[in-house]
Design goal:
Blueprint: E1 2-8, E2 15-22, E3 29-38, H1 41-47, E4 57-58, E5 63-70, E6 82-85, H2 94-97, H3 107-112, E7 123-125, E8 128-130, E9 143-147, E10 151-153, H4 169-181, E11 188-192, H5 196-208, E12 212-216, H6 220-229, E13 233-235, H7 242-250, E14 254-259, H8 264-272, E15 274-282, H9 296-300, E16 304-307, H10 315-327, E17 337-341, H11 345-353, E18 359-363
Parallel strand pairs: 11-12, 11-14, 12-13, 14-15, 15-16, 17-18
Antiparallel strand pairs: 1-2, 1-4, 2-7, 3-5, 3-9, 3-18, 5-6, 6-10, 7-8
């Protein structure tokens, strides 16, 4: 079928709106009409080749839409179902078999190869290959092919155009708190970076009952939003020593911290802000090879650093849970989202990079 998609043709190039050809679904694939798709930092990192996805390519990995057709082997969803598309895991490695798909041993091949497992791509333009299968979807488009495994059925009562970012960014922030750190009620947490990931973590920390939720960001409007979403304290790094202030606020350091900026200096602050036995979660995606310096004695005396991918979530279980929380008024993701038509993707990207919006969602 013919579709319209945003194509990146060269490193750091523009997203160009093009007409492409999309294959019919194979036995394990699902054809989805995209209703909304979030713009994520990872899309832009791959555009810039921080992660080397082959080009030309259709990116996009926070898609939500309606199932149009399914392959003959698909049983989980059927035409007409509302779905969120998430990351893809192989389903066969030892970690997938242990119900730990976010640590799939083939996570890069499944999500960044630009092709199916057999090397083929479902997208073409004028007979020439366009790389797809990005996160098992390539959803910067009017239609996307996903696999049954990374297609998550959601309630038809929820506003579908809002739900795409649950597939990655919002899932990552919320899951980092609810699945990875699992703070006790009454505990303290400091969250560095108040983009969509950090703000999702703020909302999750409120849901699980953290007593002190400290948000840290340079953007004061983001801190105001964080406060409205549940943060009890807000810190601007330019106004003093953040680590010292966190220790003062918490009486010796936070029980938990979350690093969402991918900046080594901020990661160090996140670790140094902990109390003894505190846990720091790292979700900020830095360029390959980025290194950080930590005080070994600080770690040895009982602090923990934990790497987190996709909120350590099992999407089939966690995404419907987040939808339920939203519908109950406990997780107001609508306050994070600004809508743009698909053809305005360059404006959406620019506004995202300049911090004018928290989470841009493209509506084909």
């Amino acid at each position: 079928m013919d579709i319209v998609a945003a194509v990146v043709k060269q490193p750091s190039g523009q997203f160009l709106i093009e007409e492409l050809e999309l294959e019919n679904p194979r036995p394990n694939e699902v054809l989805v009409r995209i209703v909304g798709v979030g713009v994520c930092h990872t899309d832009l990192s791959c555009r810039d080749q921080m992660y080397p996805v082959p080009l030309p390519a259709v990116l996009g990995h926070e898609g939500a839409g309606i199932v149009e057709a399914v392959g003959e082997a698909v049983t989980k969803v059927q035409p007409g179902d509302h779905v969120v598309l998430s990351y893809r895991a192989c389903g066969e490695c030892r970690n997938c078999q242990r119900d730990d798909p976010s640590h799939c041993l083939k996570i890069f091949e499944c999500n960044f190869s630009g092709a199916r497992d057999d090397g083929s791509t479902a997208l073409s333009m004028g007979g020439e290959c366009v790389h797809g299968n990005f996160f098992g979807q390539s959803s910067f488009a009017t239609y996307a092919l996903a696999t049954e495994a990374n297609t998550i059925k959601v309630s038809t009562e929820a506003p579908l155009e809002l739900l795409g970012p649950l597939g990655c960014g919002i899932q990552t922030g919320a899951g980092a708190v609810m699945n990875s750190l699992v703070p006790d009620a009454g505990s303290s947490i400091v969250i560095f970076g108040c983009g969509s990931v950090g703000l999702s973590a703020v909302m999750a920390a409120r849901v699980v009952g953290c007593k002190k939720i400290i948000a840290v960001d340079l953007n004061e409007s983001r801190l105001e939003l964080a406060t409205s979403l549940g943060a009890t304290h807000a810190l601007v790094p330019s106004e003093g020593d953040v680590v010292e202030k966190v220790h003062e606020m918490t009486g010796g350091g936070a029980d938990y911290s979350l690093e969402c900026t991918a900046l080594p200096a901020v990661f160090r602050q996140a670790v140094d802000s902990l109390c003894v036995t505190g846990v720091c979660g790292l979700v900020g995606a830095a360029p390959m090879g980025t290194e950080v310096s930590l005080d070994m004695n600080s770690i040895m005396f009982g602090r923990t650093v934990k790497g987190i991918i996709e909120g350590d979530s099992i999407p089939d279980q966690f995404i419907p849970k987040l939808v339920e929380l939203y519908m109950a008024g406990e997780f107001p993701i609508d306050q994070l989202i600004s809508f743009y038509p698909l053809e305005k993707i360059e404006q959406a990207v620019q506004d995202s990079e300049q911090g004018k919006v928290v989470k841009a969602v493209l509506v084909p």
